[in-house]
Specification:
Length: 466
Amino acid sequence: MTELSSILRREMALKLLKSGFIPEQVVATEAALSCYGYDATRQQTEPLLALLPDNEKQLKTILKIAGEKSLKIFPRGAGSGMSGGSIPAEDGIIVSLTRMKQILEIDEDNMIATVEPGVITGELQEAVSRRGLFYPPDPASLAFSTIGGNVTENAGGPRAVKYGVTGNFVMGLEAYLVNGEKIKCGNKCIKSVSGYDLTSLLVGSEGTLAIISKILLKLLPAPETVKTSLLAFSSMTAAAQAVNAMFKQQINPSTIEFLDQHSINAVRPALPFTLPKAADTVLLVEIDGPEATVKTQAEKLNRLFQDEALLIIDAENETEREKLWQARRKLSPAIANIAPHKINEDIAVPLAAIPEIISRLESLSKEIDLPIVCFGHAGDGNIHVNVMLDKNDPSQAIRGHKAIDRIFTLTLELGGTLSGEHGIGNTKSAYFNKEWTPATIATMQALKKAFDPGNRLNPGKIFPLK
């Protein structure tokens, strides 16, 4: 850090402490700042400061003081993002919203929760569950990720196939612009077409347009029961056809997760049940709703695939359900046995293209001589693609990173998208112009400029560097 930066850090810290912040809210030492310069991509930088506001007044104060110095601002939740969305620049400040963590209201009559951005997703689910209500979005990080982070990345999860992603449950927002002015969008009304839909614009904007301070979330009645089944198939094509058949036969699962052959082989030794050796693809299917409906649909599921599936296991209680879910939950640590490192991407393709993209990825794997492990959400086409490698081997690292470009090209050729739930951040920004036309990107950048004329809010994210 330069002497000028050190002086600015001290000046900013002093000004904030004089403005009512307590020392715990102004992180200025190098050791402590290391906790705020990373995310799940394992990138690491050191910001100028990390600030932890307790309330909206403090958030506005931060924006005002940062504006006086034209400092870059990097909003942050739990740091669990997979695309570098919260990675700061060395001359910028982190604004961590984890102390703004109140559930302000659970409106049972309107079935809406009003929360601050730092509320942990799983804790919100538990709180509304105690009222007989249900908040469906379930990212894998729900035990520690924040609602604010989920909203800005438009996070998904296994239940997206039936319920949709986070954005489908955001009814309104309050947010602060870079100049400290507050905007409100959306409301508790089921129907509202008054003006531009700024709520939808801010959802998934990755902190580049405004800093969200309050969120209105739609809730549902809690499902009466859940039925979990595991189905093994001899090929990805057979599994994909099974997914299509479920929808055509009006079976409406809340979850359809899949594991490819590499995933199955990795996790097989850790499973509390035996999978057939011929199993090439596994589907983990959950159906929820009224007990009678779930029973009928589960029986239809079994009848539909009794001949095609190599194996069908139905969980009869919560203990058995948990055993089936171990096939998915033990996967991430298990694939580490294939190679010590991985490059993880989350492409999405139309449902009918799943067998084709898996086949092409298998061919690519042989071409680059590196394992490519695929698993994810078969019900919505969102695939987690893991290129397994040893980063300490320069040749593997080079092949692995070249493979990413090929993966994105194959995905777009099949009508897919660069990200189904992780966002673009800084890890995919270089590929952004492969998906969108120059005019489309220019329109997005014009919106960015309207919200943030000086490009001070989370700069370097989404858009390719010129």
